[in-house]
Give the backbone structure.
Amino acid sequence: MWVKLQAVSLSSILSHLIISISLVGVAPRCYDTGNFTTNSTYGRNRDLLLDSLPRNASANGGFITATIGQGSDKVYALAMCKGDSTPEKCFSLVNDTIHELMDTCPNQKEAYSWTGDFSVVHYADHSFFGTLELEPSVAVYNTGNVTSNLTEFDTVWESLINSVVRKASNGSSSLKYATGEAELGAFQRIYSLVQCTPDLSEQRCDSCLRQSASRYESCCHGKQGGVVQRPNCYFRWEMYPFYTANASTTASLSPPPSPSSPPPPAASPPPNSVDSEIRKGKYRSARCMLISGIK
Ligand SMILES: *[C@@H]1O[C@H](CO)[C@@H](O)[C@H](O)[C@H]1NC(C)=O
Ligand SMILES: *[C@@H]1O[C@H](CO)[C@@H](O)[C@H](O)[C@H]1NC(C)=O
Ligand SMILES: *[C@@H]1O[C@H](CO)[C@@H](O)[C@H](O)[C@H]1NC(C)=O
Ligand SMILES: *[C@@H]1O[C@H](CO)[C@@H](O)[C@H](O)[C@H]1NC(C)=O
Ligand SMILES: *[C@@H]1O[C@H](CO)[C@@H](O)[C@H](O)[C@H]1NC(C)=O
Ligand SMILES: *[C@@H]1O[C@H](CO)[C@@H](O)[C@H](O)[C@H]1NC(C)=O
Ligand SMILES: *[C@@H]1O[C@H](CO)[C@@H](O)[C@H](O)[C@H]1NC(C)=O
Ligand SMILES: *[C@@H]1O[C@H](CO)[C@@H](O)[C@H](O)[C@H]1NC(C)=O
């Protein structure tokens, strides 16, 4: 009886989530700041540099900046993987992202792309390392509603987001990434993952993530999950675990007011289903979805 109930509710949660985080097919973005011609030195440099990124990013802990060439043929590139990616996963995510990018932006001097579960690749004919770029950005939400008292939810959520943002911003020049979870009443938990490209300063990382959190709040407050993606930072929260936690990147929280809580229910939808939906870019546009333009 219990098992059956469990199975029913699990699959209904699951299908709900798959519909709900059905987001955005916006990536990749080709910038309209100039084109190169086929077989040009810039084009060859771009292809060489992009080809090196999957291996270099995965060998380097999930983040790499690199350049190739001289003068007007110089290409700058950045690649980053989600902080809990294995080197193998990082390689294949960056490889996929680059192939999509090259298919979509065959001759653009600058382009940017991300995949949902997630990796970021950006290249340009000028240096953008350490520069905070807030656009293009995408904000999407899980269509389920928060069912608990929103006032109490907000307090827990804000404190969790504050903790993960502080922890990630205070990371190193090779990793600015944090996850965290907080108890919401006796039976629910909130999970969050935030990450900046670690070429950003602490202050710029903090700013990128806080602007992403407020963007979520202004578009989608009351929804039970959301993602905000920008060229330099990634923000996501859900009411189920969707990352692999690691003590060294877990933000510590002040203990909740009522400490006598039983463990959270075990039934959580497998994050892969949602993540692969995000990754495949099968996102549906939603009322609150915000996509803003490119410079
Ligand atoms: C670059 O090429 C694209 C087509 O591939 C074209 O739409 C765009 O206008 C070009 N941009 C510039 C700045 O020439
Ligand atoms: C680019 O180079 C290839 C191989 O060298 C050649 O076959 C092709 O015609 C060239 N394309 C252009 C537009 O010059
Ligand atoms: C990246 O890869 C290239 C060639 O694959 C290699 O020569 C270079 O040293 C690598 N750079 C870094 C920073 O790992
Ligand atoms: C890289 O991605 C492309 C297209 O997604 C795929 O065809 C290719 O096999 C991948 N390469 C590796 C080494 O995984
Ligand atoms: C969430 O709440 C909104 C407005 O309160 C309602 O229109 C919507 O149907 C709810 N969504 C779900 C999945 O319950
Ligand atoms: C929600 O919680 C706040 C603070 O605990 C309380 O003041 C408020 O009455 C609650 N609202 C509802 C609708 O239960
Ligand atoms: C930032 O991290 C360092 C260790 O890397 C730690 O000593 C310091 O207390 C942290 N600062 C904040 C504000 O968390
Ligand atoms: C946790 O993070 C540390 C430091 O980044 C790393 O050395 C370790 O391999 C990670 N552990 C797991 C299980 O991923």
